Amino acid sequence: MTKQKVSFFWFRRDLRLEDNTGLFHSLQSGFPLIPLFIFDDAILESLPKNDARVSFIYDSLEKINKELKTIDSSLLIKKGKTFEVWNSLIAEFDIQNVFFNKDYEPYAIKRDLAIGKVLKQNNIESFSFKDHVIFEEKEITKTDGLPYTVYTPYKNKWLEKYKMAGQAPEYDTKPLWSNFAKTQFPFPELSKIGFERSTIKVLPHNLTQIGNYKEIRDFPALDGTSYLSPHLRFGTVSIRKLVNWANRKNQTFLSELIWREFFIQILFSFPKCVNHNFKPAYDGIQWRNNEDDFKRWCSGTTGYPMVDAGMRQLNETGYMHNRVRMVVASFLCKHLLINWQWGEAYFAEKLLDFELASNVGNWQWAAGTGCDAAPYFRVFNPEIQQKKFDEKGIYIRKWIPEFDLGYNEPMIDHAFARDRAIATYKDGIIK
Question: Does the reported pTM lie above 0.85?
Answer without folding.
Answer: yes
